[in-house]
Amino acid sequence: MESRVREKSRVTKDDIKQGLRELGLRLGALVVVHSSLSAFGYVEGGADAVIDALLETVGEKGTVIMPSHTDLDGRDFESYDPNTTPVRKNIGLIPETFWRRPDVIRAKSPPRHPWAAKGPLARGLITWNENHPLEAGGYADMLTVVADLDGYVLLLGCRNGNNSSIHSAEAAAYNEVEGATMGRAEFLRSSPKRPEDFDQLDEPLLEAGVMRISRIGDAEIRLMRSRGLFSVVKRVYETKYRDADFTPFGEVPGPASLAAKYDSVIKELKALKHASRTVT
Ligand SMILES: CC(C)(COP(=O)(O)OP(=O)(O)OC[C@H]1O[C@@H](n2cnc3c(N)ncnc32)[C@H](O)[C@@H]1OP(=O)(O)O)[C@@H](O)C(=O)NCCC(=O)NCCS
To answer: Nearest 5 degrees, angle CA 213-CA 143-CA 14?
Structure first.
């Protein structure tokens, strides 16, 4: 009798590289990655093969960033050790394997939401993450820097419900439209109660030509320009949520001085990005 259970796909590092290139990820790209290993089916070489595929696709002049968030409480500075504290289970095995590589830089703080990165922009981005975490409001945080540097967000086998950049895009949209300097402005929701709301961005992102979706093995892969994501979230806020009943929270301390620091880090990282592109 014919089995009704579909066989899992088997994928190799080269299949992943080819899939990423076909989707538009190029040498020298700056990319924030969220992932699920099992979504691919069976990956020969496991999490390391996915990481190698990513690093080889963007090359030495590219920068890869992953969440390395922990189970700790956000204030638990004593217990966090960036060299030993594992990522929490719902961040995944690929980031857990990534931050443990010797040439990956992991943030020394905040304990709950440290990011990890490798590449020419890693040091600058992770330093900004340490000093201006999402907990400080999502205002001008590291993921906003990524958008300003024309970076990408790549979702490997997971959906926009896991796309942290949307929090930052919400804060940016609210502040730009309202001329405010607030912290988080969650007019969309990624909370467990409404996990579908970030996913609803698929349609406007595809319509705007900002995101492409393809498949590698069994996994759905989404690649989007972060800058385009920010524009789409701003438009969604203006057209759908401006009059909605929600309360943005947290005034950002010293926005003027933060803005000045922000401008200088963007300038510095843009120069670094340019230099890493042009030096052979
Ligand atoms: C929660 C989440 C990580 C779960 O994905 P997952 O694929 O089940 O789990 P992981 O990526 O940790 O991979 C481990 C799984 O891969 C499986 N696995 C192990 N080796 C494998 C291989 N070579 N090939 C394929 N799968 C393999 C493991 O068996 C395990 O599955 P199990 O738990 O059913 O046993 C994922 O759905 C998700 O949400 N990712 C995004 C997280 C994120 O970035 N969130 C936002 C941050 S702010």
So the answer is: 40
- Who contacts 8 (Cβ-Cβ below 8 Å, separation ≥6)? 41, 42, 217, 218
CA of 90 to the centre of ligand 1 (A): 8
Q: Which residues of the chain have pLDDT under 50?
A: 1, 280
Q: Which two tokens stand for residue 15?
A: 């299949």
Residues 6+ positions from 159 with CB-CB distance below 8 Å:
198, 199, 202, 220, 222
Q: How far apart are CA 246 and CA 159, in angstroms?
A: 24
Among protein residues, the one with the nearest Cα to ligand 1's atom 42 is 91
Choice from 50, 66, 93 to test ligand 1 binding pocket (greatest atom count within 8 A of CB): 93
- Give one word for 209, left, alpha or beta, with left for phi > 0 and alpha for psi -120 to 50: left
Q: Among residues 96, 160, 154, 141, which one has the least CA distance to residue 258?
A: 141
Give the type of residue at 210: V
Q: 96 CA distance to ligand 1 centroid (A)?
A: 10
CB 145 less than 6 A from any atom of ligand 1: no
CA distances from 45 to 16, 40, 102, 136, 149 (A): 12, 12, 19, 38, 32
> Reduced to 3 DSSP states, what percent helix, strand and coil does the chain have, rounded to the nearest 5?
45, 15, 40
User: CA–CA separation, 114 vs 133, rounded Å?
Assistant: 8
Cβ–ligand 1 contact at 90 (below 6 Å) = yes
Q: What's the length of the chain? A: 280
Which residues, at least 6 apart from 167, have a Cβ–Cβ distance to it below 8 Å? Answer: 134, 138, 143, 184, 186, 190
Q: How far is CA 147 from the centre of its chain?
A: 10
Please give the model's pTM, rounded to 2 decimal places. 0.95
Residue 258 CB neighbour total at 10 angstroms: 18
